[in-house]
Amino acid sequence: MFKKILASLEDPNRPLLGPNYWLLTTMALILPENFKYKVFRIVIHEMGCLFVTTQFMELFVIGWDLDLLITNLKYSMLSIICTVKANTFIFWQEHWRDLANYISEADKHERNNKDDARSKIIDSYTKYCRWITYLYCSLVFMTFLTVVTNPLIQYWSSSASYRKAVNNGTEPFPHIYSSWTPFDKYTSPGTWIQVSLQIAVSVYGSSVMAAYDSTVIVFMVFFGGKLELLRERCKQMFNDIVSGVSEEDATKIIQELHSMHVLLIK
């Protein structure tokens, strides 16, 4: 079953970027063509920015309580990184699309014109990219579970007197993040509204991080693989020199290598 799920993420049009492109489109880092859906996805991203703003607003409420201050900054710094990644991806959407399309086309060209030596390079970087993507996503998922369940673990691992104090309201309810709200977040229903909101934000943030980071790593791995493929092509450029290479064939090979080099530099 697990293999079927992973297989469903593969895309014949993007043999290298299948799972990564699925992550990008699912998390709306690659925006849909439909205008209404596009606006809706952008609004979701900007709501993430709004939540980060409330985290910094909470700093004025906290004051100079060092423990609360460090706890707030620990998560708000990570939140800033997440929202910057999401918004820069959207702002430079066309550049990211061009990069993904180039990698897909260049990768397909190599797969369609491979020999034994180049096939080993392609299989090696493809396997490596899959491991990177799936292991990193698993790491982010485990981090998400740890962050979300941290208040619950703190609650149940504390003394009975602390749990009683939380239940009767004499101790503040432990939240996932430290953020400002226009309502009382320590009493019901404000507590559960805040908890639901913070879980949703955690899902959003971890998904964006998984999609963005794993894709960028795969992009860099591909460029390394492409350089290896170019080196192999250069080694094979005049492999029939004993029997002679026609001027036409030599010109064609050099033009192909030059074209690949120009696109890679771009």
Automatic annotation (TrEMBL):
The keyword DNA repair does not apply. Keywords: Membrane, Olfaction, Receptor, Sensory transduction, Transducer, Transmembrane, Transmembrane helix. GO terms for molecular function: odorant binding; olfactory receptor activity. Its main location: membrane. It is a multi-pass membrane protein. It holds the Pfam family 7tm_6. The chain crosses the membrane at residues 131-153, 199-223. This is Jg8244 protein. The lineage of its organism: Eukaryota, Metazoa, Ecdysozoa, Arthropoda, Hexapoda.
